[in-house]
Specification:
The complex is a heterodimer of chains A (about 290) and B (about 260).
Chain A (H helix, E strand, L loop, with lengths): L3 E11 L5 E11 L3 E5 L6 H8 L7 E6 L2 E2 L4 H10 E4 L3 H4 L5 H11 L4 H14 L15 H13 L5 E5 L7 H16 L3 E5 L3 H7 L2 E6 L2 E6 L1 H4 L3 H6 L6 H11 L13 H15 L4 H4 L4
Parallel strand pairs in A: 3-8, 3-9, 6-7, 7-8
Antiparallel strand pairs in A: 1-2, 1-4, 4-5, 9-10
Chain B lengths: L1 H8 L8 H17 L3 H18 L4 H9 L2 H12 E4 L5 E7 L2 E6 H27 L2 H10 L4 H30 L6 H31 L18 H22 L4
Antiparallel strand pairs in B: 1-3, 2-3
Classes of the chains: A alpha/beta (about 290), B mainly alpha (about 260).
C-alpha cells in the first residue's frame, strides 16, 4: 500500500476533432500534497483534470484514486466526484443559481445529506472562504473575485479529499492572489490534497510542494519547485520564466555573497533572512542594494 | 430590467415572506380584473403605489417612469375600444364618416374604454408591486411551493441566472465593436449587430456545455436541488393585506353591484 491519492498511468486522450490532448501521462500525487501544474495554454492541464473526476474517459491508460482504478458506472462516478472536487476557471460557468446559499448547497444536497447538515456545511464553507456577508447578495451583483470564492465554497462544502482548481488566481489582483494561496493552505492543513494549475511561476514556486510541467500533452518535468525552476533548459523548453526569488538567489550566489551550501529561499522572508545572515557574516553593506528589489 | 432587479433585492419589504407578497399581488390582481368599476381600479392603483413608494421605499419618480412604460400599448388598445364602427346612429357623442362607414365614440364605449384603461393600469401596478418588492429567486420559491413542475422551476432559475451573464457578454461585445467603429453607419451597425448575435448564440451554446460539465462535477443527478432560505410569516402583514383585499371587494360590490 502506498500513500498516493491519485495516480495516472500512461493516460492518453484524443478529442473528437482528432486533437491529441494527452500523450501518455504517468504521475502520482501524495496524500495531503500541494501540487501546481504549469504549462502553456493548450498543454492539456484542464483535459487532464477532467480525467481525474471521470468527466472524460481516457482513450488509453488508467486513473487510480486512493489505490483503486476508477470505474465509470453511475455509482462509482458519484463516489469519485464527492471525493474529488473541481473548481473551474470561469465562475460564470459554474454558478447556476442567482442565490449564494442555493449555489453552495447544491453539491452537498446531491450527496443526500440532511438540510440541517447542508446548512451547517454551507455556513462553514462561506466562513472559510470569507463570504459569509454575501449570503443574501444576488450573484450577478458580485465581483469576479467574490464569484470565484463562491465557486470554491460550493466545492468545499462537499468535503472532498482532493480539490482541483483550474487557474484559481487568473484575473485576480495581487492581494487577492495572496489571499487565495492562504486559503489553499488553510484547506490543506485539514488534510485535503490541493491541485492547482497556474501561469504564475512565483506563486507555484513559493506555494507548491511539488510542480508538474506540462507541454503538448506530456509531463516534461516534475519535482520540488526549487529543483525544477533552477533548470534553465526546462524553463526554456516549456516557455516558462524563472521565479524572481530564484533570480535573486542566483545573482547573490554569483557575486559570492551566499555560501555554496545555502539552499534556495522559498519565500520573500526566507530570502531576507538569508541576506541578513550573509550581510552579517561578510560585513558587506548589502541592504541598500537589496532594498531595490521588490 | 436591472434597476427593477436591484430594487427587488433591497426594499423596505425585502425581508417579508415572499408568499405574502405573491398572494397579495395575485389576489388583488384578480379582484381588479373581475371588478368592473372605476372606483375599485383607482383604489387598487393608489394602494399599490402607496405601498410601493411609502412601505417599500421605491423612489416615486422611478415608479412613475415605470408606469409610463405600458402607456403606449394601453392608449392604442383603449382607442380601438372607444371608437366603434356603425351606421348613422344618433348615439355617437362624436363621429365622422369615411365613405359609407361612420366612425365614432358613444357614451357607452367611452365609459368602457376609461374603465378598461384604469383596470389595466391597476393590474399592471399589482405586477409591479410583486416585481419591485420580490426578487425572482423568491418568486420561483413560491411557485415551487405551489407545485409548479420542477422542469419549469429549473428553467426559470437557469434563465434568470444566465440572462445576466448573457447581457454582460453582449455588453462587452458591443463595447469592443463600438471601439472599432462597428456602429459608425446604419449599414455597418446592422452588420455588427448580426455578428454580435451570432457570436452570442455560439457563446451561449458553449456556456451550456460548460455548465453541464461543472454540474456533473458536483454529482448532478438530474435535479437542481438547492437549499431554500427560511422566511417568517408576519401576522400584521397578512391582516393588512387581507383587510385591503376585503375592502377592494366591498368597494367593487357597492359600486358595480356585481363582481363580474
Amino acid at each position: 500500500m502506498n500513500d498516493y491519492i491519485i495516480e495516472s498511468q500512461n493516460l492518453c486522450f484524443r478529442y473528437n476533432d482528432g486533437t491529441k490532448a494527452l500523450k501518455g501521462i504517468s504521475l502520482a500525487i501524495n496524500k495531503g500534497e500541494k501540487v501546481a501544474f504549469l504549462g502553456a495554454n493548450g498543454a492539456g492541464k484542464s483535459t487532464f483534470f477532467l480525467h481525474l473526476n471521470g468527466i472524460l474517459r481516457p482513450g488509453k491508460g488508467k486513473v487510480i484514486f486512493d489505490g483503486e482504478e476508477i470505474r465509470y458506472d453511475h455509482r462509482s462516478l458519484m463516489q469519485l466526484r464527492r471525493n474529488i472536487g473541481i473548481v473551474f476557471q470561469d465562475p460564470d460557468n459554474q454558478i447556476f443559481s442567482s442565490n449564494v446559499l442555493q449555489e453552495i448547497s447544491f453539491g452537498p444536497l446531491n450527496l443526500g445529506l440532511s438540510k440541517q447538515e447542508v446548512r451547517k456545511r454551507a455556513d462553514a464553507a462561506m466562513e472559510a472562504t470569507n463570504i459569509s456577508d454575501l449570503i443574501n447578495r444576488p450573484v450577478h451583483f458580485l465581483s469576479y473575485g467574490q464569484k470565484k470564492r463562491v465557486a470554491i465554497a460550493g466545492v468545499l462544502a462537499m468535503h472532498p479529499r482532493v480539490i482541483i482548481l483550474d487557474e484559481p488566481t487568473a484575473g485576480l489582483d495581487p492581494r487577492l492572489t495572496l489571499q487565495m494561496a492562504e486559503l489553499f493552505d488553510k484547506i490543506n492543513k485539514k488534510g485535503v490534497t490541493i491541485i492547482i494549475s497556474t501561469h504564475d511561476v512565483d506563486l507555484a514556486y513559493s506555494w507548491a510542494d511539488r510542480v508538474f510541467i506540462m507541454n503538448q500533452g506530456r509531463i516534461t518535468c516534475d519535482g520540488r519547485p526549487e529543483k525544477v525552476f533552477i533548470q534553465k533548459n526546462v524553463l526554456k523548453e516549456n516557455d516558462l520564466t524563472s521565479p524572481w526569488l530564484l533570480d535573486v538567489y542566483k545573482e547573490l550566489k554569483r557575486k559570492g555573497w551566499l555560501a555554496d551550501h545555502v539552499s534556495p529561499p522559498r519565500t520573500k522572508d526566507d530570502l531576507f533572512s538569508l541576506i541578513n545572515q550573509a550581510g552579517g557574516e561578510a560585513e558587506i553593506s548589502l541592504m541598500p542594494k537589496v532594498s531595490l528589489i521588490k | 430590467m436591472l434597476p427593477i432587479d436591484r430594487h427587488a433585492y433591497s426594499n423596505g419589504l425585502s425581508s417579508s415572506h415572499p408568499a405574502e407578497k405573491f398572494a397579495f399581488s395575485i389576489i388583488t390582481l384578480v379582484i381588479c380584473i373581475c371588478a368592473s368599476d372605476l372606483t375599485t381600479s383607482l383604489a387598487v392603483i393608489l394602494t399599490m403605489a402607496g405601498v410601493v413608494v411609502l412601505r417599500a421605499g421605491i423612489p416615486l419618480g422611478f415608479y412613475l417612469k415605470l408606469m409610463t412604460i405600458p402607456m403606449s400599448f394601453l392608449v392604442i388598445g383603449v382607442i380601438t375600444v372607444a371608437v366603434s364602427v356603425g351606421g348613422a346612429s344618433a348615439n355617437f357623442l362624436y363621429s365622422f364618416t369615411v365613405g359609407a362607414v361612420t366612425l365614432g365614440v358613444t357614451a357607452d364605449s367611452l365609459t368602457l374604454a376609461v374603465n378598461l384603461f384604469f383596470k389595466s393600469l391597476g393590474a399592471v401596478s399589482c405586477l409591479y408591486f410583486l416585481s419591485l418588492t420580490t426578487p425572482m429567486v423568491e418568486i420561483i420559491l413560491v411557485l415551487k411551493r405551489l407545485h409548479v413542475p420542477p422542469i419549469i422551476i429549473e428553467l426559470m432559475r437557469l434563465i434568470y441566472r444566465f440572462l445576466f451573464v448573457l447581457a454582460d457578454v453582449a455588453g462587452q461585445m458591443h463595447t469592443a465593436q463600438s471601439s472599432r467603429l462597428g456602429y459608425i453607419s446604419l449599414k455597418r451597425g446592422y452588420s455588427s449587430l448580426g455578428h454580435l448575435i451570432t457570436n452570442l448564440f455560439v457563446k451561449a451554446y458553449r456556456q451550456a456545455d460548460n455548465l453541464s460539465v461543472t454540474l456533473m462535477s458536483r454529482c448532478y443527478k438530474g435535479d437542481l436541488n438547492v437549499l431554500e432560505p427560511e422566511y417568517a410569516f408576519s401576522k400584521k402583514n397578512i391582516m393588512l393585506m387581507g383587510a385591503a383585499d376585503t375592502a377592494f371587494i366591498i368597494l367593487s360590490v357597492l359600486h358595480g353591484g356585481h363582481l363580474f
